[in-house]
Amino acid sequence: MTDFLSQHQRPSASIMLSESAQEPSAITLKEVKFRWPKAKQAILDIPALTIQAQQHLFVKGPSGSGKSTLLSLLTAINTPEQGSITLLGTDICLLKQGQRDQFRADNIGYIFQQFNLLPYLSVIDNVCLACEFSRQRKQKAMAKHASSQHPIRSEAIRLLTALNLPTEIQTQKASHLSIGQQQRVAAARALMGSPSLVIADEPTSSLDHDNREAFIQLLMQEVTRNQATLIFVSHDPTLEPLFEQSIDLAQLNQGKLQQSDLIKEGAQA
Questions:
Q1: pTM for the full model?
Q2: Which of 33, 49, 168, 186 is disulfide-compatible with 115, CB 3.0–4.6 A?
Q3: Which residues have a Cβ under 8 Å from the Cβ of 62 and sit 6 or more positions away?
């Protein structure tokens, strides 16, 4: 287990999160720097970071520490000006835009802070959407219910039920759901088709403490079942003990934030 920081040491920006050197890595960053257009200095500067496969990682940091920027790089929405980012064995910096989009659809399940459900679709249809953009995830979902006449819907129902969403809610439109119910639907959509990497961006910010913990436990159970890696981003330090590993991005990131960059980062957080 990584010995993170001594109170008397300068924070190290080179971190490997692993139990064993033999375990494969899900994410590797090397000499990664990113700056917004017209910014004088990098908002993100990470010399080295390795996250092992199937870990549940808590990423903490205050607003402006680079959390949203890091997620935009891990999901291949943005690319760094320098360095390499390897996800699941693929250097995504070498991919063209269309290839990055497909890689994201195939391999990454993303739980948005605002959930981003389509209000006019039913709960089940919202979850099934994940398979409309990825043949790979569609095939994985179908394989779990090979004997079903509607394997995709069967897998959506299984996930929703596993996340404690009542059956009578599953056919309702997403616009009729409570915040907690929307959260579970967003998680089911992210898990649909067993992506190898699940990223959760402040998904519990609208919930009280007890509901936050219950949701995280349910999410971890499904991530573990799919043998996926979980990256959970939050500024709430009370959630950290629920995770096996954590990093403080404010200490890891050597980038120098300008006031204009802080405004951009805060707008995305």
A1: 0.86
A2: 186
A3: 235, 250
